[in-house]
Design goal:
Blueprint (H helix, E strand, L loop, with lengths): L31 H49 L1 H4 L2 H4 L3 E4 L9 E8 L5 H4 L2 H7 L4 E11 L4 E10 L3 H13 L30 E6 L5 E9 L9 E2 H4 L7 H4 L2 H25 L3
Parallel strand pairs: 5-7
Antiparallel strand pairs: 1-2, 2-3, 3-4, 4-6, 5-6
Helix pairs in contact: 1-9
Length: 284
């Protein structure tokens, strides 16, 4: 059988053929001593590079965590100042709507009927609650009173601005919840009534249900206390989280007063967070 003709010069190689660049080229022989030094230097460079990468990643992580930690106190300081930097209509809007906030998911509307001047905790709160809030340094107390659209109930909503930082607020919040201080009758917030109008005569004896909340993301305690607009006294006030339960049969619960306290506290709290977020994002 005749031999296959040779491939013409310059004929294309098959894909499985070895390219010239793939052919290993022998390196010139080096003395053993020099080869040992080169290997030592290469290992040292690799070690330094690896350590640098790890250290760089760790540093980046620390810087990232640090910037987050620095942002939080900044937001806290902004929220702490809102009692004198935010307009009263922002903290306590003249009208608040509560879609689905009433008993059975009914809608609620509340109209502001009074605004109290800024006060300190000792003058604006009952002794037990004021004493408890001294743990976080009560700086200023703001309050406004609302009436529902039917003028059958009145609610005082309050914002207590404290001197505590994030860690102190967190510890206070944990203690408040663990000991259920917000449900103790001696921790009722004080109502703010007026001489005329729906809140006339709204005082300590008229308090029917209440809620007190320690915020976790701001140095602020939010509360609300509700009573009947006709000035009737209530012998045994009930915490709002109990009064909103479907099985609750007390007079405040049946009248939906717990829903007023919870609904107004919710909306004032949300408004405070939005105002704080906007102020934090704005150039200072």
């Amino acid at each position: 059988m005749p031999a296959a003709p040779p491939k013409p010069v310059g004929a294309p190689l098959h894909m499985a053929s070895v390219l010239p660049s793939d052919i290993p080229r022998p390196e010139p022989e080096q003395p053993a001593e020099r080869r040992g030094v080169a290997r030592t230097v290469a290992a040292a460079v690799a070690l330094v590079t690896g350590v640098g990468l790890v250290a760089g990643a760790a540093t980046g992580s620390l810087l990232s965590d640090g910037s987050r930690a620095q942002a939080q106190p900044g937001a806290y300081e902004v929220a702490r100042d809102l009692w004198h930097t935010a307009p009263v209509d922002t903290l306590f809007p003249p009208r608040l709507e509560g879609d689905g906030a009433g008993p059975g998911g009914a809608d609620r509307v509340w109209v502001r009927v009074a605004v109290a001047p800024p006060a300190d905790c000792r003058k604006g709160l009952d002794a037990a609650l004021a004493r408890e809030l001294r743990r976080v340094g009560c700086e200023k107390l703001l309050r406004a009173t609302y009436a529902d659209a039917t003028r059958s109930s009145v609610t005082t909503v309050g914002l207590v601005f404290t001197a505590a930082g994030a860690a102190g607020t967190g510890r206070f919040e944990d203690r408040f919840e663990a000991e259920e201080l917000g449900a103790r009758p001696d921790m009722l917030p004080r109502a703010y009534g007026t001489e005329t109008g729906p809140a006339a005569g709204f005082g300590d004896e008229q308090r029917a249900t209440w809620t007190v909340r320690v915020l976790s993301d701001a140095p602020v305690v939010v509360f609300a206390v509700t009573g009947f607009a006709d000035g009737r006294a209530v012998a045994e006030p009930q915490p709002a989280n109990e009064a909103v339960h479907p099985s609750a049969t007390t007079v405040p619960a049946q009248a939906g007063l717990g829903h007023d306290a919870e609904g107004l506290a919710d909306r004032v709290e949300r408004g405070l967070r939005k105002t704080s977020a906007r102020a934090t994002e704005s150039p200072r």
